[in-house]
């Protein structure tokens, strides 16, 4: 018995050690600060009456002039482009009107993902309001797959459909459409990349097709469907009538499809989110209630993490039709029934996901994960609708490219998710001789493979990654907009910050950093104590929450200083608004030894203040001429700090850039001596970050630290 216990102790401590090693590796993130553009930020800040830090965030997003910034901050419906600028719009509208007039049966042909479901619902609701005779069709994910298929089209012909309008699919359906001939009119609306040869259809609406001058190329499928609705509405009710009734649905599809939230997409989502908050849509209302979002602030995160997975779940597990039904129903009871169904399906999906994730982690136990460059995992009958999500989770956890392969009847179907440095599509192309089929893009792809080739693929991808990636490519990068003094965070600041929303793909939330903030309390919170809560010894902000970062806790010591990467947010609880920082990363500020090292590289605030005060003391005594060594000696005796002449020179440059002193070589020229005179103390509060040399200094210190962490 004794022996066995000992044995298990050894095994578990080895495992524990491995996992600790792993967590340490995972925690290490590189902090990368955007270059500060003080002059421009200052200019924008004054012209738009916004904080300089907000202006800098705009600049970081490529918005560098007043007009662009104004449009970005206050974008509204006036930025919607004319739907008739889409090639094919007039022809499509004309044919649909004709169908409405003679009550021909129209079928909307959609897709089982959230984009397809919402596109279908938006067009269905619009056509119903225009008194069309309309139905919809969503192919089954498992038995039919994505896009148009001949059997489904023939079935539609047999049941009396005269006009098919596709949403979120159809642009590649040359073969499927060709044999239909004139038995059916087809209007294609899609947003996927068109192939070189387009299908023969009555009209094609796709902003990416050749010859389409529409300015917004990145619309989701639901965005394209919405433009068609807008076009129809304008035809019936004139140019002046705005048609924005279903933007709540449009926002859900646009966020879920992960198209860039810039330009028209951003406006659609911005207005749509507002509409969601007070939605009249019975299905959405019921769904919000089921997932506990009723009455809460709904942002793009609520769509991405709560609403979309539930709509997606029905398409993944059973029938996506229920998703469309939910969005179009006018019956409150039915809406609740469907919302519960979706929620239940999502629970099923979560459980399948958990069990596959557990099996994947089990396989990883037998692999040297630290040494692997690409993780290739395979299992019998892993649910094909869920392996992509599991692959994403593993990428989040291990920060390595992951391929999850589900084996069914001797054939492997895989979902690939990658890290930014590794182009998985190009890598698969290089392995195409091992694959039966593959497709996708840089960060996500799919493949089919025969079983014997799986180990070969693993080997080939690992050596490819070993050749092309460096160790640094496996360190996640945290991009920081600017160093933000906590005193800057105020109600108006947060209001201005909110104008940059909605965040998401293509428009990430601004992220800030601060250094040397004393932390006086830490504790674990939440279920299974997964989250970390910190209390700061700071007048402006006291609370920091670090979601899912409990493992950082042992690395932090109370009553010492920390460095933080964060997003400021109001936390609303029981009617109380409380400012908190949502941490993206936390680390202990460098200890005194590292601090001393840092002071040999570049000056920080304290060091600059010491230089300033020392010079002030001399000037008071009427002394203006110095060698650098004199100042170094004086600072050393005053503060017990040894500065290098280099660092002192940088500090003097920073003070000069802030107009706090003038520094001239002494006349007659004597080697290494200067006349240094302080200017009268400035009245307004001093901002060190206005000095480019100070920015440079921060960067040098950051780089030094990143080598050490
Ligand atoms: Mn889509």
Automatic annotation (TrEMBL):
For this UniProt record, the keywords arranged alphabetically read as follows: Exonuclease, Hydrolase, Nuclease
Name recorded for this polypeptide: Single-stranded-DNA-specific exonuclease RecJ
Q: Which organism is it from?
A: Sporomusa silvacetica DSM 10669
SUPFAM superfamilies assigned: DHH phosphoesterases
Domain RecJ OB per the UniProt entry, residue ranges: 480-585
Family the entry assigns: Belongs to the RecJ family.
Task: Please state every residue range assigned to the domain named DDH.
Answer: 105-254
Specify whether Hydrolase is a keyword of the entry: yes
Ranges where the DHHA1 domain occurs: 373-466
